[in-house]
Amino acid sequence: MKLEDFIALFSEEIENQSENTSNSEQFFVEKMGEYLSENGIITDIELSFGQKLGQGLKVNAYSYHEEQETLSIFIAVYDRYKFGKTISKTNVEKTLRKVVKYYSKSISGMKNEMEETAEDYPLAQLIFQKHGKTIKSVEFFLVTNYLYKANERIILPKLRGVKTNYHIWDIERLYQLIDENQGLDNIEINFELKFGKSFELLKVPNNENAHFDCYIGFIPADLLAMSYEMWGERLVERNVRSFLQARGNVNRGIRDTLRKNKELFVAYNNGVSTVADDAVLELVSEDSNLFKVKEFKGWQIVNGGQTTASVFHALKEGIDLSDVFIQLKLTVVQSDIGMYNMTAKISEYANTQNKISMSDLKANHPSLINLEAISRTTWIPSNDGTKSNSKWFFERARGQYLVEVNRQTTLAKKKAFQKENPKNKVLSKTNIAKYYMSWNQCPHIVSKGGETNFDAFISLLDEKGIVVDSVFFKETVAKGILFNTCDKIIKELDLPGYKANIITYTISMLSCIYKKKMDFAEIWEQQSVSLELQNNLRLIATYAWNHITNPPIAGTNVTQWCKRKECWERFVDEHYLKIEKYIRSSSLI
């Protein structure tokens, strides 16, 4: 896909999905955040719009990673008519100063001047309470649908008490991220041809019926670094995308060992685990089990992304790596399904470093592959006597839909594809998890964000052995229709703030009351929710709003309160009987 094609498709997506011009900027920020989250660059994004024009303050969203003590704050430069236009370095700096000033004012207690119902109140409260305590690092992100052609580093004043970094994500950088994620497993490396050196591996004896071969040994650190320099993050499987800055404790440890105690590196470091579709190996001698590596095909690092990136940066800093070796394990898998299972298990069980992106780790999970296949062949019911002409499109990887649209060779074919697969009927894997877990009465988990919730969703499918078939797909779509209907109702109620939390708590309470009596088949057939059910959602939403905004301890951050199981349990204990009595009196269940 070319950049101009991506810009056209992405701008169309924003326009079609945002209901009016006033919220298109936030929809843009949300979409950018989803891409960054699913690629492990940030954790889940929370929309949090706040602006004081007279004071030069603005914020659009944030992402808080408590374990890493890092807060990521987003500010947008967006104009629906300026997709692909140029933004200057001056405007970039001017914009970033607004969000930096927002942070500084929040440290000083700006929350005390705000309404608690303001969308950005939880962020201002979080900064005030956590700055310098569990917020040790602040990452400022400028996201824009413009092009930052200058591409120069931004240097702004540092904040006292925290480390600060600035990141600029323009529309081209987003395009590069999506483009990079296509065809990740096509890497072929001939080490001697590319780098003039190789290494040796010992084959591990295994059962002849196994669908894989395993090798262990040591790779020269400079060879691994040069491989990363050539292939970049395409070499690192998406689930273990490395943080390219040494900002976590593990990364700093790797860096410091390479600088000060290189001779101890092999003892301290766990090494890297890799997989490949195929490997060309040459037996060193007939009486040995030692092989010289010639070439890897479809080579991917599934554990050790930080080690790889760290030795690359050490090489760039001029650190001599000639006497540094890294333990390497290679698994050559002989079948597609075997490749998924092996890759996923290695990634999940072996990774002991920074948080991985679970939605990418599980992108090739058999359940998701089934959902994708079912969605491509399941037509939406027609209620007007004509044949069905559209489908729900399950997007197993972020950006998949845009890529599929662009693969159509003519304008007529693109229009036909979009008619058959409408943009407003695209299902992401994190959204499907949100629909499912909300109905499964886990609003506290859903409130923790897309990645955490997705992990819980996949674990639940595996633990319960849930069969993902046509019935499951249709019920999931019906849950999505119910969820999105609830979203619209809450917008109509104009409840100030915490919309995402109200939706999931409302759906969970509805599930609690209806239990197994909800007719999802009817919702699927009608592709809509009855008026009676909409009235029930409206009622429950009001109770949900009152509950979450009145935590037992005054001053508790509402967003954090919603993530606690106690919040859900109290909601059921205190309001279930009242809500159920009303609904039953309406003879709807």
Characterize the structure shown.
- This is AIPR protein.
- Residues 28-176 form the Abortive infection phage resistance protein N-terminal domain.
- It comes from Bacillus pumilus (strain SAFR-032).
- Residues 237-552 form the Abortive phage infection protein C-terminal domain.
- This protein folds into 3 domains: 3-178, Restriction Endonuclease (3-Layer(aba) Sandwich), CATH 3.40.91; 183-356, no CATH class; 367-585, no CATH class.
- Strands 6, 7, 8, 9, 10, 11, 12 and 13 form an 8-stranded mixed beta sheet that branches. It has a 5-stranded mixed beta sheet with strand order 1-2-3-4-5, with helices on both faces.
- Helix 19 (470-493) packs across helix 20.
- It is globular, with a radius of gyration of 26 Å.
- Strand 2 (57-65) and strand 3 (70-77) form a beta hairpin.
- It contains 24 helices and 15 strands.
- With 589 residues, it is of the alpha/beta class.
- Residues 238-250 and 352-360 have low confidence and may be disordered.
